[in-house]
Amino acid sequence: MAAGDRTYDVVLFGATGFTGGLTAEYLAEHAPADLRWAIAGRSETKLAAVRDRLGVDVPTLVADVSDAAALADVVGRTKVVATTVGPYLQYGAPLVAACAEAGTDYCDLTGEPEFVDRTYLEQNAVAERSGARIVHACGFDSIPHDLGAYYTIQQLAKKLGGEITAPVKMRGIVRSNATFSGGTFHSALGAFSRAKQMREAMVARRRMEPRPEGRTSRAVAGKPSRDGDLGYWLLPLPTIDPFVVARSGAALPEYGPEFAYTHYAGVKTLRYAVGGSVGAGALALAAQVPPIREQLKKRVPQGSGPSVGRREKSWFTVDFVAESGGTTVRTRVSGGDPGYTETAKMLAESAICLAVDDNPKTAGQVTTAQAMGDALLARLQAVGITFETR
Ligand SMILES: NC(=O)c1ccc[n+]([C@@H]2O[C@H](COP(=O)([O-])OP(=O)(O)OC[C@H]3O[C@@H](n4cnc5c(N)ncnc54)[C@H](OP(=O)(O)O)[C@@H]3O)[C@@H](O)[C@H]2O)c1
């Protein structure tokens, strides 16, 4: 079915899970009245319970992600699929493949670099042919960082009189007091346990992916240091975010001839800096040992997540500092609970943006800045995520 003739604008997969449930609630409250949306999952009973809880007569579609025929049927009926079915390395590939094949736009919440590199290797060319936009990382990973860098480039260009002609060095510094869900914990442990496979996928992608002509864009590893202006200790943060930012820099000429981005966590005191790196390092090591990994998974079960009260007290900031030819700009992206309340908002707004907004023409695996840039930035600002120049 051509994309224009589909029954639904958006189908949300994973609505029976923790983050999917919040995304369904967000759509029920905030989707435009004429948006045709539905929820999908593997259990009719659980989907009916979600529909009853939402109090909206939303259609329910049953499909297990391991059932290729059921997936093809669902993705053929919608313009956009938004999915929270994770860990994505475990469950995600068939849905990306079905969307790439059917020319259906796709967005997800993955923060798993190996998954994104593998879908690039396997599905990018298929999606480019069908016209599907495959947009990973439409949650806290990596929207505040990707659109924050995009916004910062716009502010820098303005300050420089319209165009960036010299190399740009940018750093992003994340801070938050939030906690995580079972699904996120399981996804992180899975990713930590596959360091070798992650490297292999990254190398294979680097060999295959074309580079921009006459320009460069790189994610540069940082060193622990102190930012005197912000008053934070900076710890290099090896998440998916710097790679997504660098991909946007490669795709969009407005990032200038030579773009370099470094990603950090910001902590107020050195004690937290040391505690944070030791804790993350210990978790990464523990994830290598299968029995310990399984014990850890039991401590935070899938389907669980931070309470409403905990989420209401949570916040995030991402500070950006960008310098080009002696000119510097400082910006900040900020909002409430990053991992769930704001993530549900970001995923839902991304899905709506892909379905109804007038976006640049793109296809294949694309970043949020590349696929939706200004339209998504405007949407997120309108619903309480702040992008400001400081
Ligand atoms: N990047 C970010 O900022 C961010 C933020 C939040 C979450 N996430 C990611 O989002 C994912 C979900 O997290 P969560 O806490 O919401 O997890 P969760 O509560 O465990 O939800 C997982 C969902 O996947 C569904 N599912 C599992 N296997 C399936 C299958 N074979 N077929 C169809 N559906 C299946 C589950 O359905 P049942 O209910 O039937 O089991 C459930 O709806 C994780 O990968 C997490 O890392 C990322």
From TrEMBL:
Family matches, as InterPro entries: NAD(P)-bd_dom_sf, Saccharopine_DH-like_oxidrdct, Sacchrp_dh_NADP-bd
Pfam families found in the cross-reference section: Sacchrp_dh_NADP
Coiled-coil residue windows: none
Stretches assigned to the Saccharopine dehydrogenase NADP binding domain: 10-132
Name recorded for this polypeptide: Saccharopine dehydrogenase NADP-binding domain-containing protein
Organism of provenance: Nocardioides panacisoli
